[in-house]
Amino acid sequence: MKLVSKTHTRLASLCLNTAKICTIGVFLGVFGMDMLVNAQELKKEDLSKRSSASKITIPVNQRELTPKFSPAAPISPKSSPKSSLKLSQKLSILPMGINLGANNVIPSVTVKGSENGKEAIDFNNWLIPFADVTKALQFNVIPKDDGQLELRSVGSIITIDPKVLINDPDIGQAISIAQIRNLLKTPVEFSLAEYAIVLSPSWLTARISNRPYQEQEAPINLVGLQQVTPPSFSLTGISLRTSLNQTQTANSNNLYNNLNNSVNSNLNSNSEFKAIGVIAGGSLFSRTQQLNNNGVSSWQLNELQYFRPSPYSDYLIGTQLPFWSRFDRNQSDYFGVTLIQRSGYTAANNTNFAYGGVTPQQRLSANELVRNVTGEAKPGTLVQLVTQNDNLIVAEKLVDSSGKYNFDDVVTANNSLTGNGNINYKLLLYPVGDLSAKPEEVSLNYRNLQSQVSAGKSAFILSAGLNRISSNDNFFGSFGDFKGGAAYYLGLTDEITFGAGLVYDNSTQPYGEILYQPVNSPLTLRVGVLAGNKISFNADVSYITNNFSLRLGGDEKSFVSNLYWTLSPQLALFSNWYSGGISNGLESGFNLNLNSIFLSLSYNADKGINGNLRANIAPFLFGIRRFNQQISSELIYNLANKRFFNSGDTAISLNYETGDHNYLASLNLVYRTPWTDRDGKSLLDLSIGYGVSSQGSGLIVSASTAILPGIGLRLAYKQVDINNNNSSISLSLFTSVLWQSGADLSSDESKLDKLRTQGGVLLQPFFDKNNNGVRDDGEDLYTEDIATLFLINNQPLSRFGISHPKVVREGVLFELPPNTYRLDIDPAGYPLGWKSSSTAYAVTVVPGTYTTITIPLAPSYVVTGRAIDKDGKPIIGANVEFVSRSNSKKRFASITNNAGIYYLEDLKVDIYKLFVNGKSAQPSILEINSDSKSFLELNIQP
Q1: Once rounded to an integer, what is the mean pLDDT over residues 177-189?
Q2: DSSP secondary structure letter of residue 357
């Protein structure tokens, strides 16, 4: 027992001593660690007082050291124990910060490295956690489909292979100092004074271009929208122009005699009548003319054309130009039927095709042309595709190890609703993805030709009809021989479009055409051939840059060349050569533009010197022009008090002109009112003058007015002319009526011509006071701030350059090319207190008419107040409901806040039952009618 007891006593003593030793060890360990930390802080403080020479800077271009780890795959101790052992012997775990330039961005990270108190040891092989490096350099790490990592920051875009990163057992995925320099292209140093890794990317001190990216247009969604369609048949509008002219050859300069004396007088009249309408989704346009010479009257049909477009096919019936007309300058009028079928693309549909009749060549042109842009550059180069005009980044690519880059389906021509024709680009090449470096710039210029289509796209055209010869004896004219043709156009490449077919015009003739526009070249070539009993060809070649233009063209009968070379913003040279036409010879000269003075001089061996001089030196405007031995000049004194003015503004003008040994000098007072009609035309233009010529002298008077709504009038009277002493008086009248918009009169002569290929919408937002969805008597249209109320295809109306909203009697007109559009009502444009129940429509527009959209704006009421109990205290969290008495499904609910306030909006004219927490409230009924205020306050209680 004693032996056991002693043994236990010894064991207990041994345990106690062991515990004491452990306690002392722990204390010494903590004390030692504290002393080590304090010593490290004192060391840093002492080192910070040393000179900056203690910083070790290694330039980026330093010779790359042989890496100790294979870049083929992440390294782990298991895969390379020898290397791991070697590293662990040399490098230690060091806590330190990471600086970006002079700023500390990460206070403390764990790195693997070694230093001797004076400098870094084997700095190139130090390891830093990859995530901390990308965070400090502000990189956004994006995994790519090919397994690469794209690192994107404000000043650099690079790609690295994640396999070259190092998997360290202590700090995880890491990157070495050498890799930061070579892969990330970032200078890096170790600051012993601050005990930090210092990263110094070039973009810290360089100016970075803040070039924006091009916004991608949102897709147009028409699913589920209310459909609004145009009328299938209607007469949209008519116009009439009438001119009367009487010339008096009697020896009398008296106005009264000129109007009443029929002896030796010649009275002529000319009337033109136009009509436009829609039939089955297409426009029908007619133009007839009446000629009356000394009592002999005749009417004749000048044009009759039906045009029905669709995205991929068009029908054209009536008077038109055959698609092969460019080969025959003496082509007679053609009355026929033409079908155009496009495959893979839609037709051009912008403002360039907004006026006049339709030609088949126009409808072959593509709405959009795309090309592939390719090139070569050093691997790691960042290539940005940027628009030349707007300087927007369209796309960007990092060149991989192949040294090649490509941008697919780049739009080089946009003839859509919001397009503006040719689109030119430039390539910006940044070495090693460094956005702070000056990029190499490569211009990409494209000049797309009419009828040119993208590679793989095609079009087929078929036409048949008869010759038509206008005749004064026959309203329709006389019809002659049959002719027709068919052709197929194919985009062989992005550069070449080829067309081939057969034409029958007196004989069968093979037809061929080649359109060529090399990629990134100012050269364009168009050559066509019509081969039969005789060969007809037509060729056009052009070479156009920003400051140089050369055009060559001709056929088997003639040749023409035009050269224009801009030497500076002030000086340009030009030369024109004509052969085989009406004018022949070479004419060369220059243009000098000195802002307020413009001078153009040219010399032709047959016609001598021609020129034009204009000087705008306020308050005077001077001009002189010489052309084909005739000289005209004018001196104008500005009375309109305008900085920029012309001969049509209020002024005093002195004019002098000569020709064929005759002359005419005149002094005129010109007056133009500052007021205009709704078409933008001056209400009154008046010119009164007196002229002296080699034939005599007399009054020269003219006046035009738009005072009468929708009617343009012009009266001109003169007693003297440069070539004779005959007096004349003329009267012109023009008016057009749009029946669809409520017999709206207009003096705008272009409106009906515009509707031949375009359509539009007639917007009719109105105040639906009784909320029945129908415009009743006394419910006015809302036509203010229309541009802010509507969006078309997610764009404001101001985005479309084809037209501007125009207020008419029955709403607002807005022209649009044929298509189906999404029309949204922007809540920000609602008049105060009114809203529409429908917020979006799918609107179909066809040429020749306006699609009417009626938008009822119902009164919208807001009711707010407090829910209170019998003691007047607020009820918090109460459910306040307004329920329509006529339709219990129409419920409006609100939960009260901490002050007992509820808020209900979008209430309509109705009688509502009031509830609080499901129980009838007091008051129990609220009636909202057309006389109610749009904002109501009402306190309620259970």
Answers
A1: 93
A2: -
Residues in the chain: 942
Neighbours of 557 (CB within 10 A): 10
**pLDDT score of 99:** 95
Residue 403 CA to residue 333 CA, distance in Å, equals: 58
CA contacts within 13 A on the Cβ side of 726: 12
> Got the DSSP string for 642-711?
-SS--TTSSEEEEEEEEETTEEEEEEEEEEE-S-B-TTS-BSEEEEEEEEEESS-EEEEEEEEE--STTE
345/88: higher pLDDT = 345
| Burial of 69: CB neighbours in 10 Å, binned 0-12, 13-18, 19+ | buried
DSSP letter assigned to residue 940: B
| Amino acid 909: pLDDT | 85
* Residues 171, 445 contacting (CB under 8 angstroms): no
Say if residues 859 and 933 touch (Cβ distance below 8 Å).
Answer: no
> Do the beta carbons of residue 733 and residue 246 sit within 8 Å?
no
Lowest mean pLDDT among 19-28, 256-265, 571-580, 908-917: 19-28
Chain centre distance of CA 178? 47
Q: What global pTM score does this model have?
A: 0.76
Q: State residue 802's pLDDT score.
A: 60
Tens-digit pLDDT profile for residues 716-733: 999 988 888 788 899 998
Compute the distance between CA of residue 275 and CA of residue 286 in angstroms, rounded to an integer. 5
Between the alpha carbon of residue 707 and those of residues 672, 676, 683, 714, 746, the distances in Å are: 13, 9, 5, 11, 12
Q: Round to whole Å and give the CA distance between 441 and 427.
A: 6
Query: Which residues make Cβ contacts (< 8 Å) with residue 738, sequence separation at least 6?
Result: 236, 237, 744, 746, 751, 808, 813
| pLDDT per position as a tens digit, 652-661 | 999 999 987 8
Residue 789 structure tokens: 């109320």
In eight-state DSSP terms, residue 438 is: P
DSSP one-letter code for 144 = -
- Of the CA atoms within 13 Å of residue 110, those in its CB half-sphere come to 8
Ramachandran region, residue 256 (left: φ > 0; alpha: ψ -120 to 50; beta: rest): alpha
Instruction: Encode pLDDT of 80-110 as tens digits.
Output: 333 333 444 478 999 999 999 999 999 999 9
Q: Average the pLDDT over 311-337 and give the result.
A: 86
Question: What secondary structure letter does DSSP report for 439?
Answer: P
What φ, ψ does residue 7 adopt, rounded to 5°?
Answer: -60, -45
Cα gap 385→766, rounded to integer Å: 47
Q: 145: how many CB neighbours lie within 10 A of its CB?
A: 5
